[in-house]
Amino acid sequence: MAFSRFRLDEDERRIMHVLRSHGSRSRKDLAATLDMSASKLTRLSGTLLAHGLIAECPGADSVAPGRPAVPLCISPAAGYAVGAVVHRGLIEVALVDYAGGVIAHRSQPFDDPDPNAFAARVTETMHDLAIAHRLLGRRLLGVGIGVPGAALSPDGARRWTVESLAAWRGVDLKALFEERIGHDVWIENDANAAALAEYYVGGLMRRCSTAVVILLGHGIGAGIIVDGRILRGATASAGEIGCLYPVDAPRPSTLDLLSTLRSAGCAIDSVLDFDAVTLGYEDVVADWVDRAARQIAPIINWGLAWIDPGEFVISSPLPNRLLTALVERIDYGTMRIGDHVGTTPRISVSTLEGTAATLGAALLPIHATTIG
Length: 372
Fold this sequence. Notes:
With about 375 residues, the protein is an alpha/beta fold. Helix content is about 35%, strand content about 20%. It has helices at about 10-20, 25-35, 40-50, 115-130, 175-180, 190-200, 205, 255-265, 275, 280-305, 320-330, 355-370; strands at about 55, 70-75, 80-85, 90-95, 100-110, 140-145, 150, 160, 185-190, 210-215, 220-225, 230, 310-315, 345-350. This is ROK family transcriptional regulator.
């Protein structure tokens, strides 16, 4: 059975979830946490050890006399995965290990709308990074691609992409990229990918089981995590909140801010060197932040009513200081927060510095090994 297709049973997934969300644990602690007999825990953990998904982590101090208990942990050496996302004017490629640790991340200029050119650049970059980090010969679990746009097929392989990626529209991207890159490929909406990164790497899984990640990228989209799973919906298009904004009016997105700056005379084409390029246009940026906060407030309100998440996360390739200012400008007084919400909703800014969609894309093959 190919590693990337390995499926765990319910109890094995519960073990993996505890280790991912709470860190290393002894067999005794795991059995107690999961209300599982010691013999069953030993048998199941033995299977996971044999598949290389977990490892024994010696070195922990013993809290009791006698032979110290050797804790179990997710094994980084189980393999690695690649993620890639294209933004306006640049491409990002990331490598993560099986435990979710970031091995490498590279951002570079790229402005070719041809998906074949994208695949060639991803292949070249992932090979260079594998050499640089001595990963050749290690188990590559697969490649995840974050794509902006609504799904056109139930599996999400065909998408109605944004205008700048019109050549990607309706194409079976999974088949195309697997042929060009030569490895198993997962295709996912970029907001869903960002949500996966926030859940695993950003620490959401330690704070709540249900969350909404709002991605300000090519457009505006939402990735929804419910009980640790991505909510995709009947047509794989859950979270397409961009359709809630009038098509003939601006919406709060990275491309919208870049367009607003260009209209004001700023020579900007991408978020690369954003602060340096926008010197002298601080008032334009501040006005955009005010407007974006007003536009996002209803989305937060509707999200509370429909999803009741434990947290909202704002993610974007834009500088975090802009996202922080945006969150601070949301006027809760204009929102109709339901009686079930005792305090203002928890809204945080991504700690992943704009890399969430790329890291989440790399986590797709890893996430697939532990879902039902």
